[in-house]
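Bumping with the actual sequence this time:
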Amino acid sequence: MHYPLRYRRARSLLYVIGLFWLWLWLGSAALMEGLYHSPLHAALAMYAIAVAVLVSLPAALLAVLRMVLTHPQRTGVVVPLTRAARPVEDAHWWYGEKVS
């Protein structure tokens, strides 16, 4: 069975991780400079960035593996859906007459 949503989620995760690494390369120094007045906040920010870096590496690896394993096939078959035998308008029988 093919699940295209898993492939798309893995691809989106790779985009987010790529944006994080781009921000880390270009903008994280500005964050650290803005925290110069509080060493505690700077230490917490450094700890958070270090944890995010360490978590992003295996997450990217798992996303790549999921993309490889669930790659969508281009030879799919489109199956047209048939309409129900009963019209949808007849489904109000369980509402009763007191529905506002």
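The tokens above came from a reply further down the thread. Helices lie at 4-26, 28-34, 39-69.
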